[in-house]
Amino acid sequence: MIRLRRPALAVALALTAVTTAVLGLAGPASAHVTVNPTEATQGGYGRFAFRVPNESDTASTTRVEVVLPENAPVGSVSTMPVPGWTVKVEKRKVDPPIEVHGSQLTEAVSKLTWTAAANAGVKPGEFQEFPVSMGPLPQADRMVFKVLQTYSDGNVSRWIEEPTPGAEEPENPAPVLALAAASPSATPNASAGAATPAGDDDDSDGAGTALGIAGLVAGLAGLVLGGLAFLRTRREPVPRA
């Protein structure tokens, strides 16, 4: 068995503690339904995806209902086909009408419901994205989407709690799309969401975090090896002239 002297043992223990702390900070947060990207521009168009993770260990997600906010209607909402799923689009009357490309629309999409075919649900340990295209985005600070997630065993997760800025995140938060005012030089079709493919934001953040952790651990390992080399040098006898 390898025995470490006290200085070397202290360095090794410090490396272990720091590595554990770093990896602990990088652990996954509690999963809930989100909209990606999370930011866009008022008056613009964008491609967004509702990301639905399965939090059950035994049941699959078989239905996802997304309710669009009544106080921030959108004139155009279209869905992208999701293999194994069908979507139902519900509309409601809006007053005053919404102007889209010079036309006055008296109806707006109020709810989107995706239903899985047999054996096509989101299984435990998996997630599914449901892409939509929306615009022109309303003149509002944000859009809050209330979502119901139904499982094959009949349980329903209700992601309907509206987050409050500056407050702790609620237990069942609703997905929120933050909307920024368009710059004077922006075109009507400009949108933060339009130029950002759904999912790229989290993937790039995750890759950057992983590289940062790997670099930190490698640096700490180098420090430990350097310390051990220094201790070994001190123990070696100095040659006499």
Short structural summary:
Helices cover 23% and strands 34% of the residues. The protein contains two helices and twelve strands.
Percentage of residues in strands: 25-35%
- What general form does the structure show? globular
H/E series = HEEEEEEEEEEEEH
- The strand line-up of the biggest sheet is 6-7-4-10-11
Q: What is the number of strand segments? A: 12
Q: Would you tell me the overall average pLDDT?
A: 78
Question: What fraction, in percent, of the residue positions are helical?
Answer: 10-25%
The largest sheet, given as strand count, sense and whether it forms a barrel, is: 5 strands, antiparallel
Low-confidence stretches: 15-29, 188-209
Count of runs of 4 or more consecutive helical residues: 2
**Which value, in Å, is the CA radius of gyration?**
26 Å
What is the distance, rounded to the nearest whole angstrom, between the alpha carbons of the first and last residues? 37 Å
What class do helices, strands and sheet pairing give? alpha+beta
Structural commentary:
- With 241 residues, the chain is an alpha+beta fold.
- Helices cover 23% and strands 34% of the residues.
- It has 2 helices and 12 strands; from the N terminus they run αββββββββββββα.
- The strands form 3 sheets. A 5-stranded antiparallel beta sheet has the order 6-7-4-10-11, with no helix packed on it. It has a 4-stranded antiparallel beta sheet with strand order 1-3-8-5, with no helix packed on it. A 3-stranded mixed beta sheet has the order 2-12-9, with no helix packed on it.
- Helix 1 (6-25) packs antiparallel against helix 2.
- The longest helix is centred in the C-terminal third of the chain and has 36 residues, at 200-235.
- The chain is globular.
